[in-house]
Amino acid sequence: MNNLVPDTIRQEPSPPSGPEITHEDIDRAHDRQRVLRARAGRGLFSKSRLLWLLIGPGILVMLGENDGPSMVSYAATGARFGVGFFAPFFVLTFVMAIVVQEMTVRLGAATHRGHAELIFARFGPFWGWFSMLDLLLGNFLTLIAEFIAVRAGLGFFGVPPWLAVLIAMLVLVLALITHRYWTWERITLAAALLNLVFIPVAFLAHPDWHAFGRALGTWHPLPKGGLTNETVIVILSDIGATVTPWMLFFQQSATVDKGLTRRDIGYGRLDTVLGAALATVAALATMLCTTPLFSHQMSAENFQGAEFAQALQPIIGRLGAALFALGMVEAGIVASITISISSAYAFGEVAKRPHSLNLPISQGKSFYTVLLLCAAAAGGLVLIPGLPLVPVILIVNVIAVLAMPPALVFLYMLVNDREIMGDLVSPWWANLLAALVVILLVAAGVLFGVSVLAPNALAHLGGG
Fold this sequence. Notes:
mainly alpha
C-alpha cells in the first residue's frame, strides 16, 4: 500500500532519473514542462494556453459517450415521444455524469493510478480482475453497437458493410500510430467535436422551439401517459447513453496518462463540465432532429442510423440527412477509439503490463494488442447479415445502467479513502450528490425489473 500514499507534497511529478527512464516518461515530462511554462505566465493568453493544455479527458469522455448507440437512442426518443419529459431528462443525466466523473478526476490526480489499478490495490486481486473482466465484457458489447452505427451511417451513402468496418478500423489505427498521448488526444478531440454536427441538422428540421423551451422550463416528473414498458426501456436506454462504467476507467486512466496533478484538478473539473455541456447540446439537438417524425406520427420503433436519415430526408433535405448520417458515423468511430482504449488501460493496470498511449508498439505490445483485438472482434461480428441496431442498443444501454451502481460503490469507497486521497476526500455534499445518483440508478433498475416481472404494475406506478 505504500505506493498509494497521497500526493500531498509533490505538486509536479519530477522526471525519473537513472536507467529506468523510458520514452513514456520523457514525453510526459515534456508535456508537464509546457504546463509549467503556461502556469508561470500572466495574462489572458497564458491562462487560455494553460486551459488548452489541460483540457481533454473530460471532453473526450463526454463526447465519446455520445456514441453511436447513444445518438440512436436520443433520435429514437425524439421520434417516439417528442420533447416533453425527455428534454430536461437528458439534462439531468448529464448532471449525473458530471457528479460521477469529477470523482475520477480527483482520484487520478491524487494517486496517479488508473481506476482498475486502484481497485486491485485496495480491494484485492479478485475484485481487480473481476472489475476488469466485467468492463471488458460491457465494452465489447458496446463496441459491437458502435460498429453497427458506423455501418448504418455509411450505408446511407451506399458504402458496403465490410468497407464501413474497414474504414472505422483504419481511423482507429491512424489515431494510435503517433505513439503520443498529446497528439492522439488533440486528433480525437477534433473528431469528437464533429458530434456537434447535429446542431445545424436540428435547425434544418424546424422543430417547435416554443414547445422545447416550455419542456425545459416546466418539467413534469413522469412522461406523458405515465410509465409503460416502452417508456421504462427508453428511460434506461437514455441513462445508459450518458452514465456508463467505461467512463470511470477511461477518464481516470487518461488523467494519469496526461500527467495531471493536484494543482490541475480545477481545470479537470472545468474540462468535465465543458464536455458535459457540449454533449448535452448535441444530445438535445439529436432529439430535435427527429421530432418531426413524432409530429408526423411516423413509426420509428426499429430505425437504424441510416433509416432515420432516410426518413428525415423529405423534411430536412439531402444535405441535412447526409449530415445526420455522418454524425452517426463520427459518434461510432470516436467511441470505438475511446472505449477500446479504456479496455486496454484496465487490462494493463490489472495485469501489471505497460499501458500508455505514449508507448511505442515495441514497448506496449499487450496494450495495443488488447485494444486492437477488441475492436477487430466487434467489427467482425457486425458483418453478420441482418444484425439489428436498436435491439442491440437497448440491451447494451440497459446493461450499462444495471452495472453502474456496483461500479459507483467502488468509486465512492476509493474517493473517500483518506489514505490515498489525503485532503482530497469527498466533502459531504459531493457524497450526497453521489448517493442521489446511485439512488436514481437503482430506482431505474427496479423499474426495469418491475416492467419485466409485473408490467401491469407500471400503470399504477405511473398513473397511466
